[in-house]
Specification:
Helix 6 links the parallel strand 5 and strand 6. The chain has 18 helices and 14 strands. The strands form three sheets. The chain has a six-stranded parallel β-sheet with strand order 3-2-1-4-5-6, sandwiched between helices. The longest helix has about 30 residues. About 45% of the residues lie in helices and about 15% in strands. The protein is elongated and about 75 Å long. It folds into three domains: about 200 residues, NAD(P)-binding Rossmann-like Domain (Rossmann fold); about 90 residues, N-(1-d-carboxylethyl)-l-norvaline Dehydrogenase, domain 2, CATH 1.10.1040.10; about 140 residues, Rossmann fold. It has about 450 residues and is an alpha/beta fold.
Length: about 450
């Protein structure tokens, strides 16, 4: 089947490539001409493991096409997915202007029945809003063309998006009609041999499911970060506490890792959007607000620990801090709302000199931190450590797990190591000569 995907960001490009991989013909549309020209050449605008390979393969085999012409795309495709950005507005609500523009553009070029599918993360009720936009546009044309609008939220993790798309935990299809839902179900049949992973529900529930899923995961992260704060103050070790509660089958181990807070394009935006949705509906989202507040506080924790450490050493002014990892999580180059940005701003404001390294996100980080003084971009973690008074680990890239630390310490001027992801064993790091400070871990560990 010919499928149109409007938008070639993380969601649109991965979705289009995976549809093509499963045998469909995917037409990926974007209004960014330069981006489309690069994609035609196999130049991928994002870092996502495995994506480069399937994009190039399906371009060569003619199943993955890139274009900017709505008229051509809408005429060719029976189903039109909308996978465009839905950024936060100043009040935390979701900006639907890109979604509405895409819907309007599809409606302008519709000549016969089409199924329009919201793939973007959107507030509850957006499918009805999109339907209204399409009806209005068709009315301007004095055209009477049938269509249906469905919800099909994405559940892709950056860094594992291709596998999540090809082998999904579940596929949510939201529709108030049976026939279009069955058509969408058939399109996804290649992704799962067992249809019990395709969940059919009404449109509003499907839209809410996406927000609720991300809110639950964000809640677990903020919960553990708050527990880590309590552990630090009472002398408990959050690493042991995490194992203790995670062993409960009702809780499990996923998303129970304390750290420097969550970032990226999903959790922060979706929590704020859900808070806005709740308030507009007359609900008081106390827990969701607390999740957001805890996360904002957590992003500042490592900076506070660094400032406290150097307070007795003349302050941070003129001190050199190496930062390992800049992206908001491993296996992505996404810098959106990355905790590293909060730390960098904090340290620079106190006069620190920074040496930065990330295995993948350096180009995007340089764009974000362009022309800022007192920043040196380093070739690897060893280079970053040269002359450093302290090292701060912000992103738990695999290559940082088994670093040879004796050579690192020799390169440093100081011996402080601030572990924002609790990657290392405290006693081991202290034995190697570091002043090791982590999240929710007491300074003196009694048990080996």
């Amino acid at each position: 089947m010919h499928i149109l995907i409007v938008g070639t960001g993380y969601v649109g490009l991965v979705t289009g490539a995976c549809f093509a991989e499963m045998g469909h013909t995917a037409l990926c549309l974007d209004i960014d001409t330069k981006k489309i020209e690069n994609l035609k050449k196999g130049i991928i605008p994002i870092y996502e493991p495995g994506l480069d390979e399937i994009v190039k393969r399906n371009i060569q085999q003619g199943r993955l096409l890139f274009l900017t012409d709505y008229a051509e795309a809408v005429q060719a495709a029976t189903i039109c997915f909308i996978a465009v950005p839905t950024p936060s507005q100043n009040d935390g609500s979701c900006d639907l202007s890109y979604v509405e523009t895409a819907a309007r553009s599809i409606a302008k070029h519709m000549k016969e029945y089409r199924i329009i599918v919201n793939k973007s993360t959107v507030p509850v009720g957006t499918a009805y809003r999109v339907a209204s936009v399409i009806r209005d546009e068709l009315a301007k044309r004095e055209a009477s063309i049938p269509f249906d609008v469905l919800s099909n939220p994405e559940f892709l993790k950056e860094g594992a998006a291709v596998q999540d798309c090809l082998k999904p935990d579940r596929i949510i299809i939201g529709s108030d009609k049976t026939a279009p839902a069955e058509t969408l179900k058939e399109i996804y049949s290649a992704f799962t041999l067992s249809h019990d992973r395709i969940l059919m529900m009404d449109t509003l529930s499907a839209e809410m499911t996406k927000y609720a899923a991300n809110a639950m995961l964000a809640t677990r992260i903020s919960f553990m970060n708050e527990i880590a704060d309590v552990c630090k103050k009472v002398g408990a070790n959050v690493n042991e506490v995490r194992k203790g509660i995670g062993s409960d089958s009702r809780i499990g181990y996923s998303f129970l890792y304390p750290g420097v807070g969550y970032g990226g394009s999903c959790f922060p935006k979706d929590i704020r959007a859900l808070i806005s949705v709740a308030k507009k509906a007359g609900s008081e989202p106390l827990l969701l607000q607390a999740v957001d507040q805890v996360n904002n506080r957590q992003k500042k924790v490592l900076g506070q620990k660094i400032s406290k450490y150097f307070a007795a050493k003349g302050g941070l002014k003129g001190k050199t801090v190496a930062i390992w990892g800049l992206s908001f999580k491993p296996d992505t180059d996404d810098m959106r709302e990355a905790p590293s940005l909060t730390l960098i701003e904090d340290l620079l404001s106190q006069g620190a000199i920074l040496r930065l390294f990330d295995p993948v996100a350096m180009p995007n980080a340089k764009k974000t931190l362009e022309n800022i003084p007192n920043i040196t971009w380093c070739k690897d973690e060893f280079d970053a450590a040269v002359g450093a008074d302290a090292i701060a680990l912000l992103t738990e890239w695999k290559q940082f797990r088994l670093v040879e630390f004796p050579p690192i310490l020799k390169k440093m001027k100081g011996s402080a190591f601030f572990d924002g992801r609790n990657q290392y064993k405290p006693l081991d790091m202290k034995t190697k000569g570091f002043d090791y400070i982590a999240i929710g871990v007491p300074d003196q560990i009694k048990n080996t």
